[in-house]
Amino acid sequence: MISKDANLKRILYQKGFDEKDILEFEKKANSIILGFDDVKNPSRFVQLLSNLGYFTITNSNICFATTSLYNFEKTRCVLAEEGIECSFDTDFTISQRCLLAKDKQISLLKTNVMGIINVTPDSFYESSRVQVDKVTQRALQMIQDGADVIDIGGESTRPFSDPVCEEEELKRVIPAIEAIRKVDKNIPISIDTYKSRVAQKAIEAGADIINDISGGTFDKDMFYVAAQYNVPIIIMHIKGTPKDMQKNPYYEDVIEEILQFFEERIEQALKAGVKLENIILDPGIGFGKRPEDNLEILRRCEEFKVLGRPILIGASRKSVIGYVLGNLGPEERLEGTVAVSVICAQKKIEFVRVHDVKENKRAILMTQAIFC
Q1: How many CB atoms are closer than 10 A to CB 159?
Q2: Which tens digit of pLDDT belongs to each residue from 142-156?
């Protein structure tokens, strides 16, 4: 199922439809929009949907259909009676079922919880800051609470923050990664850095995933490190740098501009040798965005799946939540964070990055039990 607010033109272009069909489909688009991949008998399938009141367009074995909510409710039963195999999975653009992080498999058929551990003295949420000698305890608690990934960061990238030198960042993150690896060999670890050498040393110390807030724009060698070590990389969108990103950011169309950024960065990553199946996309909540931009991203985050890659949302305790709830500080933003995780689970977003693993994990599991 596709959001009615989605950029239909882009989605249909990506699927190989011509402009005439796209314009006609946009005119007919109703409250329910569905996309079907790998339709076994397209002509029979289209005829059946047409008889049910759908408007359809096809391209080979790909079909897009639109109808009212009433007709949609009848569809599943009718198709089952006709013996036609099709899926209502919202992730029809992603055939990949798992992410391979070194020797660790991460399912892409659920919303994974990435727990945040900051070995920093100045990250925006004080309770996320952990001394190196306490990292093991914090990590084990997160794993017990249901974390699917642990994200280690050694430099605060909060708005207006100053950069940390490479050597200082290494002194923070390498012992933390090594400490976690001593007590748990299986939990995937991501290294939150935009420096290629830090990423390299972190991988050698036991990290499995690179989480780059700059999407490879701050350090031209980052994609080469990801390719050399054959590890997944999270490409995040940012406008500016942490020091200046919140100085009057502006977008004509935030979703379209982020999509264009992702397309360009994916192209550069592939040229550097990164495998497509190793790319994860993060639209960068709070990184050079106004509150209205962040809310629009959360409202339409599933649209980024048109690029065929898993999506990560990192909104935990961020300022947009404080803004919506009446200028609350980071310590008062847990409920808003959980609400975002529930929405992500409903939209089948593959990753949420959070400070509070237990609360978000339980909310996601309940949401998945209801909707999946």
Answers
A1: 18
A2: 999 999 999 999 999
180 neighbors 115 (Cβ within 8 angstroms): no
Which of the following is catalytic: 289, 318, 333, 361? 318
- pLDDT score of 69 more than 70: no
The per-residue pLDDT for 90 is 41
Instruction: Please give the CATH superfamily to which domain 98-371 belongs.
Output: Dihydropteroate synthase-like (3.20.20.20)
* Start-to-end C-alpha separation, the chain: 13
In the numeric block, which tokens belong to residue 61?
Answer: 């074995």
Q: Given 3.40.50, 1.10.10, 1.10.238, 3.30.70, which CATH number is that of 8-82?
A: 3.30.70
Cβ contact 149:189 at 8 Å: yes
Choice among 15, 309, 353, 361 that is catalytic: 353
Q: How much is the average pLDDT of 20-32? A: 83
The C-alpha atoms of residue 304 and residue 297 are separated, in whole angstroms, by: 9
Question: Does the pTM exceed 0.85?
Answer: no
The yes-or-no answer on residue 353 being catalytic is: yes
Rounded Cα distance, 174 and 322, in Å: 33
Q: Express each pLDDT in 226-241 by its tens digit.
A: 999 999 999 999 998 9
318: annotated active-site residue: yes
